[in-house]
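> call design_seq(struct)
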């Protein structure tokens, strides 16, 4: 049994995609990040970076005590290795998937996240910051479009954890100032993933609570964007 600590952000939805694809038994524990539940002491024991998602595997490979994992890329890799699914066993295929998984967690996610922050959530609109991150998001879309011109999926011809990592960050393309018509190969891939039954189930009844809206309360804004080290001590 997997206990998934979750809120419907792009990073949270990556793990929901994996669990829906595999049918791995799991329980969802909602962590309302707008209320600051990610700073609760019990959650910090699982996720010391006070971010969702995080998981606890009650039955880790080899047995032993329950195992907690935080950071969405590490969680996808852990679950792929646990189940033997969505990560090739051969060295070349594995390397391709891991490259694109790390590309997402180091590039697409952070840059698109900053894009959304300055374009949607920041109380003061800073044209330089908005332009910087919209352009960088656009560049990364171009990288992905070029890759998908040569392959059916992000890391090759098979669906993998690299696709699961990227897809939720492409879902908010409009608030991030991107038009998928400009990226035909990315658009083809996006529609393919969107139509998968597991994707439909993962997104069923899910409304990302902050997607595309800047009208956060001052308390939500403080909790989401105003924390210092004092919050985790």
């Amino acid at each position: 049994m997997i206990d998934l600590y979750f809120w419907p952000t792009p990073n949270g939805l990556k793990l929901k995609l994996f669990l829906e694809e595999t049918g791995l038994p799991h329980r969802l524990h909602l962590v309302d990040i707008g209320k600051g539940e990610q700073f609760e002491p019990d959650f910090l024991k699982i996720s010391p970076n006070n971010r969702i998602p995080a998981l606890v595997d009650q039955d880790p490979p080899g047995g032993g005590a329950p195992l907690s994992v935080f950071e969405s890329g590490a969680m996808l890799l852990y679950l792929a290795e646990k189940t033997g699914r969505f990560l090739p066993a051969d060295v070349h295929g594995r390397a391709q998937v891991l490259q694109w998984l790390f590309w997402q967690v180091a590039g697409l996610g952070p840059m698109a996240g900053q894009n959304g922050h300055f374009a949607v959530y920041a109380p003061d609109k800073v044209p330089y910051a908005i332009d910087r991150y919209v352009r960088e998001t656009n560049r990364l879309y171009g990288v992905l479009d070029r890759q998908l011109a040569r392959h059916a999926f992000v890391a090759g011809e098979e669906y993998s954890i690299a696709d699961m990592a990227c897809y939720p960050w492409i879902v908010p393309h409009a608030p991030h100032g991107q038009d998928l018509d400009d990226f035909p190969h990315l658009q083809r891939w996006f529609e393919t993933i969107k139509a998968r039954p597991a994707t439909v189930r993962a997104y069923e009844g899910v409304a990302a609570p902050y997607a595309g809206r800047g009208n956060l309360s001052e308390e939500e804004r403080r909790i989401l964007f105003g924390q210092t080290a004092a919050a985790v001590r």
